Amino acid sequence: MATTASPPTAATMRPYHRQGEIDYARLEFDPDERELPPDAMEQELAVQDLLGLLASRFTDFGARPDVFLSSNTILCYDPTNLNVRVAPDVYLAFGVDAEAIRPRKLYLPWEVGKPPDFAVEVASASTARQDVTVKRQLYARIGVPEYWRFDPTGHDYYEQPLAGERVVDGAYQPIALTREPDGILKGYSAVLKLSLCWAGGRPRLYDPATQTYLESEREVWAARLAAESERDAAEAQVAVEQAARLAERAARRDAEVRAAESETRAAAERAKRRAAEAELERLRAQLRGRPADR
């Protein structure tokens, strides 16, 4: 059985310190609209895979109140100016009040009580340069303990498929990567207690404790479809076998009916024959008892 990671539990959830109302009308952006780049489709599949893997592992698909997971929503980092912001492709925070964060429409570290623990940027032509420069500096300034970059193309935008950094002595230091014989690139995330992997352009998560890869939503769906197909095939085979048995019983009943009808006809023929023989014998006896003609 796979073991789960151990992020902070609900018992260690930081209290949310709401600091007055937000004047959304004064914002230079709409927090209800995600700020997506023009080439967001380049990132879409990797972002969806990451969200699915992280949601399944850490949030019970949103059921855990102490884990916040989001994508392309607004992370502010200046309490005096909420227009100073960044929108990580994927970010995750443990031990926070997720139910209090979402109605605010913004992730405000000074209210949440901490910055996100983990952030990932997925490469695209329009965002790659900022991801390795401006955003890297911002995440370090905000205090995000781990920052990862994932390039679905392999090297077109970041010049490497996967890069991870963690804060050491107040500065980001690279996380060592290993490459498996099958080409999968891995880097261990101390925050997740899992390895983030680049596998043919798609992200995966590997659990060193169980030495297994976590199933993505796509893989779970494919397995469900395969199981349903196998079940349907089995049910169809049972139906075919049942139909064959019914046809065999029907054929046997038909044969028995035909045999019974044949026996009935034979019995009737025998009875007619016996009756004819008896009538013939009666006529013979009658003739034998009549006087001879003179």
Keywords:
294 residues, tt1808, chain A, six-stranded mixed β-sheet, five-stranded antiparallel β-sheet, disordered N terminus
Protein model, in words:
There is one protein chain. This protein is of the alpha+beta class and 294 residues long. The chain folds into two domains: 10-214, tt1808, chain A, CATH 3.90.1570; 216-294. Helices cover 39% and strands 20% of the residues. It has six helices and 14 strands. A hairpin with a 5-residue loop joins strand 10 and strand 11. The radius of gyration is 40 Å and the shape is rod-shaped. Residues 1-6 have low confidence and may be disordered.
At a glance:
This protein is of the alpha+beta class and 294 residues long. It is 39% helix and 20% strand.
